[in-house]
Amino acid sequence: MKRGFLGRRRRRLLTRRDVAVVAVMLGIPLLLEALLIWGPALASVGLSFTKWTGVGGVTLQSCDSLPSVPGIPQPGCLYGVRNYEQAFTTYPDFWPAVRHNIIWLLVFVCFATPLGMLFAVVIDRGIRGSRIYQSILFLPVMLSLALIGIIWELIYSPNFGLVNSLLHRTGDDNLIDWLGDPSLNLWALLVEASWRQAGYVMILYLAGLKAVDPALREAALMDGASAWQTFWRVVFPAMRPINIVVMVVTVIESLRAFDLVYITSGGNPLKGLELLSVAVTQNIVGETQRIGFGSTLGVILLVISLVPITLFLYQAFRREEARS
After folding, report:
1. Burial degree of 74 (CB within 10 A; 0-12, 13-18, 19+)
2. Mind listing the pLDDT tens digit for each residue in 76-120?
3. Across residues 148-174, what is the average pLDDT?
4. Region of residue 212 (phi > 0: left; psi between -120 and 50: alpha; otherwise: beta)
5. Whole-angstrom Cα distance, residue 39 to residue 37?
6. How far apart are CA 44 and CA 298, in angstroms?
7. Is the dihedral of CA 304, 53, 41, 249 positive or negative?
8. What's the order of all strands across the beta sheet hosting 76-78?
9. 3-class SS of residue 89
10. What is d(CA 150, CA 268) in angstroms, rounded to the nearest whole number?
11. Are 253 and 108 in contact (CB under 8 A)?
């Protein structure tokens, strides 16, 4: 009798109305994600095998079987893997863009992320004025990337900028064009991006440090471990979930970099600032309107971003299983 009563009670926990509410609350976000994320992603994969200018529809005929009329846009057609061949062999901006994206990622991993972690560790110690420092360091994250680009354009201004004024290089014969010189502009933009990324990483690690059990630190200190040994051998491994989040965010932020380059170059990327995200935009919404080729570059960017994320997650979960 008691078991039957409990069974009926459990069945009454979710009424039809509750089931409908849960279905709506889960269904709408899943539908939006499918329409706005997975749908365009899968469409880009399909369009990468076509030759399409955005005019007319896309037919399932091979481009070789359709007549080509110079100067007249043709409907989309199947182009096979030739878009990928052109990207890797004849497209002049591809390999410079890949190299610059890799540099962007390495700077984020080797400089911006450790700097943000350092800020988090120092602030977590409860130094005097930590709230003020935290607010100042987090301020760039609250600003839009477009506004950050405008601010740093003023800082890098050749004649009146803060950097050249401090270096006394504001004369016409000795000024430094930080954003126009191909050998300097990428590194100048990386300073802007790292300024924002360090604050973002700081907040993530602050959340991770607050979640670490204080007993772990006390035990390490009682065993005679130094502050550095306590952090590196006890606290840092305990923040494994945050480390995974930071790594994924770092890879995504470095490979989707676009706003700062677009603002700096005024929509026409300068030499030395080639990035895959900029190349995708140029081909899809630029004057050439090569939707198929732009989709190809987008797919390549997606694959490049998935490789380090997948490897890092695989290593992290494998170590977790080995420990358990």
Report:
1. middle
2. 788 888 899 999 998 988 999 889 988 999 999 999 999 999 999
3. 85
4. beta
5. 6
6. 7
7. positive
8. 50-51, 76-78, 58-62
9. helix
10. 16
11. yes
